[in-house]
Design goal:
Blueprint (H helix, E strand, L loop, with lengths): L6 H29 L19 E6 L12 H7 L3 E2 H7 L6 E2 L2 H18 L4 E4 L3 E3 H6 L19 E3 L4 H6 L4 E4 L5 E10 L18 E11 L4 H18 L4 E5 L11 E9 L4 E10 L3 H6 L1 E4 L19 E2 L1 E9 H11 L7 E2 L13 E2 L5
Parallel strand pairs: 4-8, 7-13
Antiparallel strand pairs: 1-10, 2-3, 5-6, 8-9, 9-15, 10-11, 11-12, 12-15, 13-14, 16-17
Helix pairs in contact: 4-9
Length: 373
């Protein structure tokens, strides 16, 4: 192009250059899409294998002993008039529900009690948008498209319903450089969550255990890379304290590599005993995502110590920005907590006792009793 060329030849080269530029853009988009599929690396101590290879870190309490036939939460809910799946099925479809009477108060109590406890640990409370751009969903490590996606997409827009508050909270500091002195940033967010639950079926997922919409309190931390292991342990301790306060029998698991989502470097799950289902069921998880999400979201911090190298003329000796580490953990997934409380605190006379920590948040109510006809 720099030499002497005939106008027709120059125009031909210009067109070739345009075509190459467009091809490069298309290739970069394809490459980016492929790169999104690569998961995070795993912690050296993560067990290798599938779900059955998880290692139990801790077991707390023992199963409740009942001297009468145990009911599951569906039967208890029907007898105590606490929820309505049939009407919700007509209105919205399967895996939706109405909460009624004391179940509504129980949801509000769980949310408010959980928030009050987590805030004591230095977390800032948030409510979040429940519609987010699909690009933010992808940057957090979730796939908004495909046959097995758990994400509801809004037709005719680039927005999705959130499956967890982790997504909008992760996006708060997108494309920003934080000061080191502001770290760690600790948030506790209340939101509704929406999941397609593609492929989920069977008696183990009946009732409130697996639903399309639910309320959840989520913890999220942004910190320096050298502190993420410490805050991972803090998150699991907070979860364990919450569930111990409610008197649940549970176990904490170090999840195996095959059961980690794409963003997770290491993940601890908590499973609680559900007498009516006659098994342990997952009620919480805590994940260290290291810099997997922050690289995609562009969240960095500038170390307070200046760079040791001699600055070039006209340049400052500010330390170069580094990516933060992000962590998330479930403080309270309401439906599964309701399952646990109803099934573990049921009485022979048909009542369900309210755990003491929740009573001040339910107007002093001590038990849920059958309605007089």
């Amino acid at each position: 192009m720099k030499g002497k060329l005939e106008p027709s030849e120059r125009q031909k080269l210009i067109e070739e250059g345009k075509n190459l530029k467009e091809e490069l853009l298309s290739l970069e988009e394809d490459l980016q899409q492929e790169a999104q599929c690569i998961p995070n690396i795993t912690h050296p101590d993560v067990p290798i294998g599938g779900e059955e290879c998880a290692i139990t870190r801790k077991t707390v309490g023992s199963p409740c002993k009942f001297s009468f036939p145990v009911k599951d939460h569906l039967q208890l809910g029907k007898e105590l008039d606490l929820f309505d799946f049939d009407a919700a099925s007509e209105v919205s479809g399967s895996k939706f529900y109405y909460l009624k009477n004391e179940a509504v108060m129980l949801e509000m109590a769980l949310v408010n009690w959980t928030l009050s406890q987590v805030i004591k640990n230095g977390f800032t409370p948030l409510t979040t948008p429940e519609l987010v751009r699909s690009s933010v969903v992808e940057k957090c490590g979730f796939q908004p498209r495909g046959d097995n996606t758990q994400v509801y997409s809004i037709e005719g827009s680039d927005q999705c319903l959130i499956g967890t508050a982790e997504i909008p909270v992760g996006g708060i500091h997108m494309d920003s450089i934080l000061s080191e002195s502001s770290l760690p940033l600790k948030y506790v967010a209340f939101s509704h969550c929406f999941r397609t639950e593609a492929g989920a079926a069977g008696t183990a997922t009946r009732g409130l255990y697996r639903v399309h919409q639910f309320s959840k309190v989520e913890m999220f931390i942004l910190c320096r890379p050298d502190e993420s292991d410490f805050y991972h342990e803090e998150l699991i301790r907070i979860e364990e304290d919450l569930f111990s306060s409610l008197g649940l029998h549970y176990k904490t698991l170090d999840m195996a590599s095959g059961d980690l989502g794409a963003p997770a470097y290491r993940k601890y799950d908590i499973e609680a005993w559900m007498p009516g289902l006659e098994r342990f069921g997952e009620i919480s998880s805590a994940s260290n995502c290291t810099d997997y999400q922050s690289r995609r979201l562009g969240i960095r911090y500038r170390p307070s110590e200046p760079s040791g190298a001699t600055p070039k003329k006209g340049k400052s000796n500010l330390a170069p920005p580094q990516f933060v580490h992000t962590l998330n953990a479930t403080a309270c997934a309401v439906p599964r907590m309701i399952v646990c409380l109803l099934e573990n605190y049921q009485q022979e006379n048909g009542c369900v006792i309210i755990p003491e920590p929740l009573r001040p948040f339910m107007g002093g109510l001590e038990l849920i009793a059958p309605k007089s006809r």
